[in-house]
Write a structure and sequence with these properties.
Number of helices: 7
Strand order of the largest sheet: 1-6-7-8-9-10-11
Strand content: 15-25%
Shape: globular
Distance between the termini: 21 Å
Number of domains: 1
Number of strands: 13
Radius of gyration: 18 Å
Largest sheet: 7 strands, parallel
Oligomer: single chain
CATH architecture: Alpha-Beta Horseshoe
Length: about 260
C-alpha cells in the first residue's frame, strides 16, 4: 500500500472491496471513481463492482473480502495511522462478522499502529464492538455526517465503546445544525472535490467549529474542496486549507502520535 494522500492518515488498508450507496453523501464518492480506475488497471478484486445508472458509474452492492491483504499491517514496522477500508465500509451488511473479527485480531496484534475505522453504518459498528466486550486502545471509531439528514449517526457512534470516537463531516453538503459532540473526540471537516462537487458554506463549518470548542473536540479542517469560501469554483489546491486564517490539524488531545 502506498502512503495515503488523505491529510489525516498515513496509510490506507483495504481488506474489503465494494460498497453500496446509502444517502446523498455517497453521490460523488471518490472510491467509486478509484474502483473504476483500478478495474481498468486489472486489479482483480475491483472487477465488476460498479453499474451504470443515469450516465454515472455507481456501486452495485457486490462486496469482496480480500484475505490476502489481512497480513499487511504486520509488515509495517514503523507506527502508522491506518485508515481501514478507504475503498469500502467495514460494517456494510455484505461483510461477514467472521471477517470483521479477523480484522480485529490483526489490529489487536499490532498495537504500534493506530487504526481509523470510518463507517456510514455506525449502528452495526456499535453493536459489534459492544458484543466484543473489550476496547482496543489503538482503534478509533468514526462515522460520516454530511448534513442534518444523517445526524442520528452521531448517537450510534456515541454508544460505541472506543478510546477515540470521530466524525468525518466530509463532504459537508448541508448544515448539521447545533450538534451535540459530547464524548466525540475528533471532528474532520471538508468540502467536496471533483467536477460535480456540491458547494460548502462557511456558516456550516462555523457550527461545527463552535461545537468543537464547547465540547473540547479536536478540530481538523481538511479542505474547502472545489468551492472556496467566496462561493466560487476553482481547483482544490487553489482553495487551500485555511479556515479562520489558519490551518487546523488538531488530533485527539489524549494521544501522543
Amino acid at each position: 500500500m502506498a502512503n495515503s494522500q488523505i491529510e489525516w492518515t498515513d496509510t490506507t488498508w483495504n481488506p474489503v472491496a465494494g460498497c453500496s450507496m446509502v444517502k446523498s453523501g455517497c453521490l460523488n464518492c471518490y472510491a467509486m471513481e478509484m474502483s473504476r480506475r483500478l478495474e481498468a488497471m486489472g486489479v482483480e478484486k475491483y472487477r465488476g463492482l460498479l453499474k451504470k445508472t443515469n450516465h454515472k458509474m455507481i456501486w452495485n452492492g457486490i462486496i469482496r473480502e480480500d484475505k490476502q491483504t489481512l497480513s499487511l499491517p504486520y509488515k509495517w514496522k514503523k507506527p502508522r495511522k491506518i485508515f481501514v477500508n478507504s475503498m469500502s465500509d467495514l460494517f456494510h451488511s455484505g461483510v461477514s462478522d467472521n471477517f470483521i473479527h479477523q480484522i480485529w485480531k490483526v489490529m489487536e496484534d499490532t498495537p504500534r499502529h493506530f487504526y481509523q475505522i470510518l463507517t456510514k453504518r455506525p449502528q452495526r459498528m456499535a453493536d459489534f464492538v459492544t458484543k466484543l466486550n473489550r476496547v482496543l486502545p489503538n482503534v478509533w471509531l468514526g462515522t460520516s455526517v454530511e448534513n442534518q439528514e444523517v445526524t442520528d449517526r452521531i448517537e450510534h457512534l456515541r454508544g460505541a465503546p472506543a478510546i477515540v470516537r470521530f466524525i468525518s463531516f466530509e463532504p459537508l453538503i448541508g448544515s448539521v445544525g447545533n450538534i451535540n459532540l459530547n464524548n466525540i473526540h475528533w471532528a474532520i471537516v471538508g468540502g467536496e472535490s471533483g467536477s460535480s462537487a456540491r458547494p460548502i458554506k462557511e456558516e456550516w463549518i462555523d457550527n461545527i467549529y463552535d461545537a468543537c470548542r464547547i465540547y473540547n473536540t479536536a478540530f481538523f479542517f481538511k479542505q474547502w474542496g472545489r468551492w472556496g469560501k467566496d462561493n466560487k469554483k476553482r481547483s482544490k489546491k487553489a482553495n487551500g486549507r485555511e479556515y479562520k486564517g489558519a490551518v487546523w490539524n488538531e488530533l485527539p488531545l489524549s494521544l501522543n502520535i
